Each structure stands twice: as C-alpha cells, then as structure tokens.
Amino acid sequence: MQVTQTSSEGLKRDFTVVVEAAEIESKVTEKLTTVGTQVRLPGFRPGKVPMSVLRQRFGKSVMGEVLEEAVNESSQKALNDNDLRPAQQPKIEITKFDEGSDLEFTIEVEIMPDFEPMDFSKLKLEKLVAEVEEEKVDEAVQQIAAHQKNFQKVARNRKSKEGDALLIDFVGKVDGVAFEGGSAEGHLLELGSGQFIPGFEDQLVGQKGGEEVDVTVTFPENYGAEHLAGKEAVFEVKVHEVQEAADVEIDDDFAKKLGLDDLAALKDAVRGRIQDEYNQLGRQTLKRNMLDALADAHDFEVPPGMKAAEFDNIWSQFQQELERSGEKLEDQDQSEEELREEYSKIAERRVRLGLLLAEVGRLNNIDVSNEEVQQAMFAQARNFPGQEQQIFQMFQQNPEMQNSLRAPIFEDKVVDFIAELAKVEEKTVSYDDLIADPDEEKEDKPAAKKKAAPKKKAAAEKSDDEKPAEKKKAAPKKAAAKKSEK
Fold this sequence. Notes:
alpha+beta
C-alpha cells in the first residue's frame, strides 16, 4: 500500500492511495478459502470446493468486501500515520480499478484545528441571582387555586355558559356506527377547556340539565387516530346537570388537598419551585457570558465543511421563519448579501465554540453516561402524558434521537467544569433584570453602534453561539371519546 499526501492547505489534506493488485488478490483468495470451508455445494464435499468454482460463485461479492476493507483500512492508516484527527467523514473517490490491477483512490479530509484552551482560572464571570418576592409566591398560589376549580350543581336549572361544567353521558358514531373509545358515562366536561376536539364544547353551551343533544364535529385531518382523521362524527349527548365553579378558599385545607401539611408548606414548595426557575435563568446568563468570553479569548481556524454545514442550518431556519411569518427576503432591513455575511460569522462562531467545548471535554475526560441519557429520555417522555411508554421506546430505538439528548448534557457538563475553575461573582438583581434581554439593553445605549437586526433573525440571534432550542412536538390532543384523566 502506498499513501502519498498530495495537498496540505489550511485544515484540508488530500491523499492518493494505491493498493497493489497482489495485495488485493491475496485477500480475495484468503476470503474465498474461508468461504470454501463453510458453504455446501451439490457435488462437493465440505472444504473440497475448487477455487475456480468459488470464484465463479462468490468472487464478485468477496471482491466487494475486500475493496471496502482496503479503502477503510488504508484511509485509517493515512490518518494515523500522519497523526490527523478528521473533523468530518473523509471524502473518498476511487479513481482507478480493474480486476487484476492496482486499486487507486483519493482521500479528501478536513482535520481538527490545533489549539490550546485558555487558562480558565483567569476567566472572570458574573452570575445574576434573584430572591423570590412574596408577591410572586402569592400569585403562583392563586394560579394553582384557579386550576383547582371546585364545581357545584347550580341552584336552579339554567342554561350552561362557557366556564361551567356539564355532567354528561355521550356516544360517538361515524356513519351511524359507534366507534371504540367514543363513549363515556358520568363525564364532567368544563366548557371552554379545549379538552375535546374543536366544536364539541361550543355546541353544548346553552344546554340545561336533563336535555339531550346531538353534537356534530369533524375530526382534524392530522388527528392521532387514523381511522377517525378527517371523519365527521355525531355524538349523542345527555346532559345530567349543569355545574358552576365555586371560589376556592386558600387555606390549610386547600393545601392538604394538594398533599401538603398546611398553607405554609404549600408556599414553601411554591417558593422553592420559583427559586429553581430563577436559578436556571441565572445559570443561562452565566453560560451566555461564559460563551461570549470564550469566543473572545479563542481565535483559531475552523474546518470549512463544518462552517458551511452550520451556515446551511442557520439559513434554512431563517427561511422557514420567513415562510411562517409570510414575509419575504426583500422585506428585511439588510440585503441578502449582508445577511449571509452576518450568518456566516455566526456559523463560524458556533463551530469554534463547539470545537472548543469538545476539546475541553476530551482533555478532561468529560463524558455522558448511558444513565444520564436514560434520565433525559424519561424527562422527555413525561412531557407527553399518556404516551410516556411510546415516546421512551421511540428514543430507545433511535440512536440519532439519543444523540440529540446527549449533546446538550455534554455541553452543560463542560460549562459546569469551566465555571468551577473560573472566578464567578454573584450579583443580586430584581426579577425584571434577571429576565432582561442583554441585546436589547445594548441597543438602547447610544454608544453601541449596532446595526439593526433583520426582522426575522430568530434562526440565529439570541446568543449567536447557541442554536435555537428545538421546538417540542405537541402531544396529540386526547380523543373526544376518552375520559379526561383526573
């Protein structure tokens, strides 16, 4: 095997590899000999099949295996011998091969840049912290009470209105035939809750206890149950009684209904939850400041292919945002050329920070365990009540989806590692200051001559370096047929 480097420019390396015909033939013969000991062919004893017959029957498939192995092995050898770490999968192109002749191919590879992370002990960062105000706790408790409605039968049998609850029986039918899961008895339905498919609850407004009504609705085209999607259904509904929401008194008894000892314990639990949210906001600010500081402290070349891929991702998101908003590219405050230039810089910054964090993790043996990924899978599944098992299994069966969870966990662990080494100063601020957008503050200052951002830069703005969080897929709305979970 002969490996010759033909080009070395920046982070790009090109090689030409020649694998001699004799080496290929030797490996083909070796594999065919192994095949001959395993196969059974009519007219031949095991292990006694002539090589000519083996070549005729299995020669092409064995040759394919040998060529694939030769390319993989020689490519890896070229990287190892030159002590190169590829940034992406190398591009390989076979330039010459005829049976009985040498195999020639080229390798194009972009390598990881050579850089040394800064001394993180010299990094000075500010972390915003905020204390939970008592009025925030009271507001949160009031919201909890608002969702813990206590419905009571109306004193006189009046017509129902939005906000009331109806105690109903119903049977759903498609083409006159009742469908599975389309009926329930004694179901309490709050009008206006959106619990059932659109149009169902609207037709029950104005009904009295003891009345019967047919509710006609059409299931959405994208409805979760395929046999009902897009179908018109008639629900035969019997209204037993109209109930109205009674005021919930916030006291010890209310707290006990929620499983807590008293009102003070409820407020402590709420205060703790809000404080956790504040702490998370403070951590996000710290992370953003850290990434800004790291970007300023490191300036090394990034692989062009990685930068191009990141730019394509940003530009695609930008175009999707334009399409969703109904705007056009020419409506923006900047020209397409200016936008592409700005997004290109953002892409380069993201790639550089990603390589830096990856290198810090590699040098310090920071890794993500399978247990951590599994916990993240459980957390994702809990976002879809009633479908937890299906969502968890979907993650289990899809390595790519697991990697989408592994990456942010790894990043957070590296950020925590750097924060432990850096000098972090806490600054107590108000809640409003905690949630303030620092970019808006910069734009408000006359000294900051910042070019106006385009109308739809959601694809890359926010932190320049952090990709927008993936929008969580909405859980399918429960079928109108199913009883609501209490």
